[in-house]
Amino acid sequence: MLTYTLRRLLIAIPTLLFISLVIFLLVDLAPGSPLSEIPLTVPPDVRQRMIEAMGADKPVVFRYFLWLRQFFIVEPSYLVDSWFGTDLADGQQRILSWQSRAPVFQVIGERLPQTLTVIGTAYLVGVLIALPIGIYSAYRQYSLFDQFGTLFAMIGFSVPTFFSGTLFIIIFAVWLGWLPTKYNTQLNVVDWASFLEQLRQMALPVMTLGLANAAAISRYMRSSMLDNMSQDYVRTARAKGMTERTVVLKHVLRNSMIPVVTVIALGIPSIFGGAIITENLFGVNGIGAALIGAINASDLPMVQTLAFIFAVLIVTFNLIADVIYGLLDPRIRYD
Amino acid sequence: MTDPTPRAAAAAPLEKPASANRAIWRQFRTHKGAVFGLAVLTFLVLAVLIGPYLWNPEKLSVAKAMAVRNRPPSWQFPLGTDQLGRDMLQRMMQAGKVSLAVGFVAMFIAILVGTTVGVLAGYFKRLDGPLMRLTDMFLALPLIPLLLVMVMLFRDTIARSLGPELGAFVLICLAIGITSWMQAARIVRGEVLALKEREYVLAARSIGAAPRRIIWRHILPNVVSPVMVAATLGVAEAIITESVLSFLGLGFPPDFPTWGRLLFDGLQYMQLYPERVIWPGLAISLTVLSVNYIGDGLRDALDPRIRGR
Fold it and tell me: Does A166 touch chain B (CB under 8 A)?
């Protein structure tokens, strides 16, 4: 298991380097050098330091390694400094946002919790809806419930989140007036009332993202259950006289969960993409909204860093999915 | 004068075997969702292609257009008018043409790249490792952020050389195409790996056929079915991706709208005129739904193991 995990980890490193190269070259080779886009309001000495930090007078390869160094050495050492009060970073130039002149990672640190709260809840809700639907659809294949489940999944696949989200706003916020249209990022949860308020404002984005994910996961659960239902060990379990409940919920479910858990872990990266849409629609002040804000303001360091953060999240969760799969299914490990 | 009857009578006992296409169509028809999808998609395509000739209201002067702003649906404006007095039905048809065109062109690029990579990786053992590693890396790319960055960085340059409309079209099709070929490549590679071991490929190789000829003559015709299914689903994917870009304000310019752009424009007026968001959203969802159903039906119809049962 350890070698398997290590091997996966080693594959993740070149992948991350490749992605960082793609993102770096995309921004670097784009027409109009990033330096010409530094706003004129930036004071000359700061501009000079930014140019040096980017190594703008050096060749491309050199700049790429400089960028990597800033991303993987300078910024983490600032993080360690802020945790333990050490002085590793030694006042080196950080990646600065052109909009706010604040370090990019500070902005990301402020915004990541918002994204993770909404996305995490949405995904959890999605999984909790999807699993029972998938299990029951498979158990009663071709029943009325199953057909409704199929229709629900097909619609969930096909209606893009930006449209379902808009529909939810129109129905629940505009017509019925039950829930607020916009997410209030100033809200601090201190007591019961503000907690309820937080729940109310999270309801729409969570519902939008959760339903979209539930559609796909319920399908996987159903087909995985169906694969296992016709296996010999199920007949054996029934022949031993076990109750239907034990057979389905213990024997079949446990074996069916192996691929589904992987699919759930693999689905997490795509939900970050969906978060960009819902955050903009509902005004959640997360990293997706930060990306769009940075793009509209041509804030290249911010855009570059955020795009790479998304890549890091994707690779990390793919890695987690691989490791979980290896843990659950021994056949994978010795491949 | 010749009499055709004797020959026909002689042929009658031998029932003519149904052509493969007819068998596929017969299987396809049994899938209700697929037939529904095909009908809806045909209707939408006809509506955006022929509709503009049937429904061609005269262009209003600015003063007249201002007088008919934000009208509800009526006989003069079946879907109402927008905040600049433009006829929504006409705009929906124009937008649909662009949306569908983007879907098909981007899918075509993606399938072209994907099939090429898949065939090369599957057929030539030496290329398999590097190409599949590349595919895995592309799969790990953060797609939407990357597409947004691409549009942001290259929009102005391309617009300057090709004009804002064609520029946006070319840029978005290319961007979507080169970031969504990976699924097709994986499917094709798997098929080619299996086909390569078949006897008829071995026979072709043993009489000295060059790899190029084997690929064109023996391998490619046999991967058409999975590629067609992937292509169908790719259209849906491309339409959604394009509308996401437009929805985030980084797609097509407002005077050259797509359904996603119309939805984005309607968002500001959502509270007063929700129908302006609902029409384009419904159009996108219906297109994607019908394309997905067609893909489902095609998958069953093209699979000889399911067909004819």
Answer: yes
B93 to each of A316, B89, B90, how far by Cα in Å?
43, 6, 5
Cβ proximity of B250 and B261 under 8 Å: no
pTM of the model: 0.83
CA of A257 vs chain B CAs: smallest distance (Å) = 24
Do A37 and A300 contact (CB within 8 A), yes or no? yes
* Residue owning tokens 């909009």: A99
- pLDDT above 50: residue B11: no
**C-alpha–C-alpha distance, residues B187 and B20, integer Å:** 23
Q: B277 — contact with chain A (CB < 8 Å)? A: yes
Amino acid code (one letter) for B228: M
- Closest chain B residue to A303 measured between Cα atoms? B149
The 10s digit of each residue's pLDDT in B236-277 is 889 988 988 888 888 788 778 888 888 888 887 777 777 788
| CA dist., res. A5 & res. A2, Å (int) | 5
Given this model, what pLDDT does residue B111 score? 93
Rounded-to-integer distance, Cα B107 and Cα B176, Å: 8
Within 10 A of A97 (CB to CB), how many other CB atoms are there? 23
Q: Which among B141, B240, B248 has the least Cβ separation from residue A311? A: B141
Chain B residues whose CB is inside 8 A of the A170 CB are 270, 274, 277-278
Question: Residue B258 and residue B242: Cα distance in Å, rounded?
Answer: 9
Q: Which of residues 257-276 of B touch A (CB under 8 A)?
A: 260, 263, 267, 270-271, 274
The answer to ipTM > 0.90 is: no
**How does A99-120 read in b/e, with b if 16+ C-beta sit within 10 Å?**
beeebbbbbbeebbebbeebbe
Nearest to A163 among B154, B281, B293 (CB): B281
Structure tokens at B149: 């960055």
Residues 6+ apart with CB under 8 A from A227: A256
Closest residue by Cα to residue A134 from A263, A325, A318:
A263
d(CA A329, CA A313): 24
